[in-house]
């Protein structure tokens, strides 16, 4: 029996499924996985530079830390604002907010989406904590510090959890603004504001290096991208149409569901 033709057919069939728009599960999964991997590459490179104590990076971190510290010492009101912000949008409050949204989703009938929210927040938090222990980077040691924090420095937990929570909440609520350009802009602006200012507050208070914060942002984006790809797998496997997450969220049907409807 000639098995060569069958083998070629199977190989061609696999590739054709990857490119077939009518049966594009493989293509969507490949693109989503590649996107998550590409986001993770900058974090891996940054982590290697931190572990290797790359001099240009250390000098850049030190110069930025000195500039922010000098400004903080001369502007106590700035320190007060950054202190309030870093507590209000710290990991604890953001996790509570995400948990509240997960409960709301579950009661609305979107149990799988609620699980995605919880899994994303937990996976990102655990990964960040593990990487802190593995890298073991010390926090900035400044003269006359305006704030103090315990634990290791890389990646920044505040920056990581801000990126996780902002990304998750953005992708959950985008369906409600899918027909409103202004609404989408507001949601994106709010997500970016929380993510960026929370990270900057850690640098402003002198408790993190800039590379710690950038690492937290990138890792958070990578985790959200990876779990979003996994959620897209479920959607495709259950026969639901593909979504445009950056425009209409990970589950566009959410805006059409009624709270008293059946669970997803």
UniProtKB/TrEMBL annotation:
InterPro entries named in the record: PAP2/HPO, PAP2/HPO_sf
Region Disordered, annotated ranges: 236-264
Coiled-coil features, chain-numbered ranges: none
Entries under SUPFAM superfamilies matching the protein: Acid phosphatase/Vanadium-dependent haloperoxidase
Transmembrane segments: 25-54, 84-106, 113-135, 155-174, 186-208, 214-234
Pfam families: PAP2 (PF01569)
Key words, A-Z: Membrane, Transmembrane, Transmembrane helix
Keyword match Iron: no
Family annotation (Gene3D superfamilies): Phosphatidic acid phosphatase type 2/haloperoxidase
UniProt feature, compositional bias: Basic and acidic residues: 245-264
Domain Phosphatidic acid phosphatase type 2/haloperoxidase: 111-228
Keyword Magnesium: no
Protein's name according to its UniProt entry: Phosphatase PAP2 family protein
UniProt lineage: Bacteria, Bacillati, Actinomycetota, Actinomycetes, Micromonosporales
């Amino acid at each position: 029996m000639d098995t060569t033709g069958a083998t070629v057919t199977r190989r061609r069939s696999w590739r054709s499924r990857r490119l077939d728009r009518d049966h594009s599960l493989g293509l969507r999964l490949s693109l989503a996985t590649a996107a998550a991997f590409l986001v993770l590459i900058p974090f891996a490179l940054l982590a290697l530079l931190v572990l290797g104590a790359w001099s240009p990076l250390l000098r850049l971190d030190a110069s930025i830390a000195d500039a922010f510290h000098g400004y903080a010492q001369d502007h106590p009101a700035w320190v007060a604002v950054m202190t309030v912000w870093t507590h209000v949008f710290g990991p604890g409050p953001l996790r509570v907010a995400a948990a509240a949204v997960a409960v709301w989703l579950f009661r609305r009938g979107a149990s799988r989406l609620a699980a995605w929210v919880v899994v994303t927040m937990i996976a990102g938090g655990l990964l960040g904590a593990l990487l802190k222990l593995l890298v073991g980077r010390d926090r900035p040691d400044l003269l006359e510090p305006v704030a103090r924090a315990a634990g290791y420095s890389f990646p920044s937990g505040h920056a990581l959890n801000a990126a996780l929570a902002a990304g998750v909440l953005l992708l959950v609520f985008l369906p409600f603004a899918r027909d409103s350009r202004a609404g989408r802009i507001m949601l994106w602006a709010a997500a970016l504001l929380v993510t960026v200012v929370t990270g900057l507050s850690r640098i402003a208070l002198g408790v993190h290096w800039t590379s710690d914060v950038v690492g937290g942002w990138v890792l958070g984006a990578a985790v959200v991208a990876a779990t979003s790809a996994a959620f897209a797998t479920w959607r495709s496997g259950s026969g639901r149409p593909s979504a445009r997450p950056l425009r209409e969220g990970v589950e566009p049907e959410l805006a059409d569901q009624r709270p008293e409807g059946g669970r997803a």
